[in-house]
Amino acid sequence: MQTRWLEEGVDLGEGEFSSPARVYPAGARAIDLVIAEGKKRQVRRMCKAVGLWLTALQRVAFGPLTLGDLPAGKTRPLTAQELQALRAASRGPGRGDAG
To answer: Domain range spanning residue 93?
Structure first.
């Protein structure tokens, strides 16, 4: 599997490039892909660009929030700690606790 290209960043076409991704083996024909940005259909476009056939895609985390054992199609309110972590992450590095 040519995942090295994903780790170096990918030409997404139309003058757009992805940032490098972290790639972890997740089985004989699967990978876990960690990206630090969220361009439109980015994971699908990255896989297509390097010749990988994407058959399933599941987001398991968004910033400091993780899916955990939440059943498919279900929602729940964020905890106070999750809200605080999300607000801190949205301020970006070096922005302190103001806001």
So the answer is: 68-99
